[in-house]
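agent> Task received from the user: take the single chain below, predict its 3D structure, and emit structure tokens. No templates, no multimer pairing.
agent> Plan: (1) validate residues, (2) run structure prediction, (3) serialize to tokens, (4) report one or two observations.
agent> Step 1 OK, no nonstandard residues flagged.
tool_call: predict_structure(input=
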Amino acid sequence: MSLRRLVIRNQGWPTEASARANPGDDRYLIDDFEDTDAAEMRAGRKIPIVAEVQVRNANNTRWLAEEHLWNFVGTKDMLGTFKSPAAIPHEHLRFYVADMWTGCHNVEAGDRVRIVPGRRSWVVERVETVPYELTTAWTGYVVCKPVFGSDPAIRVAVENLRKKPA
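)
tool_result: status=success, residues=166
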């Protein structure tokens, strides 16, 4: 069973009153979106979307939100539950979700890991990034090399790693 999943859903609208009452609510009011997006949403052609990384609770009975990306604009065909960012068909959303997803897996260069379903020990050589504005964004992948042996380094999706205790 997977430890995490991605859920892309309609985030709904806060009201002016609820936004004032809940200053931690990160959802935009409709007028906070770009004018063209707000017009599309008012016409019902687009909706506000949130991407969530969810994890299983301690007794494995419910999914709980671990991290959110609010205020994307999209269509109903973008909604769904995904095993990894690679499964998200919309490139723009996939880019941002991959960055969040990688961070939630908390994998860093130098970590010892196991690639599921194997038992072999690997070391994370680097977390893969791509340029983004003035910084970089994570891609959802790492490059690993074997702890023992001379096999070449391989590229692995973070959801296929399990960290080994230090």
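agent> Step 4: summary for the user.
The chain has two domains: 4-105, 112-163.
agent> Done.
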